[in-house]
Design goal:
By secondary structure, the chain is an all-alpha fold. The chain is built from 6 helices and no strands. It starts with a helix and ends with a helix. The model has no long low-confidence stretch (mean pLDDT about 95). Keywords: Cytoplasm, Immunity, Inflammatory response, Innate immunity.
C-alpha cells in the first residue's frame, strides 16, 4: 500500500517497463489512461505485470535510482 501512495510521478517507470517489454502496448495504454497516479500504481502492483523476477528487478532498480528516499523509508519499516 505504501508504494501505491508514495511513488512520485510513476510515468517514467511505466515508460521503462514498456521499453523493457514488461508491459505490452495495450497494458501500458490501459494503465496510463487511469486518472490518478495511485490508481496507476495500484493497477501495476496488483496485476500480473511484476510476477517475474526480472520484472521485479527492473522495478526495484528504477526505484533505487530515481526515488532512493522511498526505498530507504520502506526498508526501514
Amino acid at each position: 500500500m505504501q508504494l501505491i501512495k508514495k511513488v512520485a510521478d510513476p510515468d517514467p517507470l511505466f515508460d521503462l517497463l514498456l521499453h523493457k517489454k514488461v508491459l505490452s502496448d495495450h497494458s501500458y495504454s490501459e494503465i496510463k489512461a487511469l486518472p490518478t497516479d495511485e490508481k496507476k500504481m495500484s493497477k501495476l502492483l496488483m496485476g500480473p505485470y511484476l510476477e517475474a523476477k526480472p520484472a521485479c528487478d527492473i522495478f526495484y532498480d528504477f526505484l533505487k535510482k530515481e526515488q532512493p528516499y522511498l526505498v530507504i523509508d520502506l526498508l526501514q519499516k
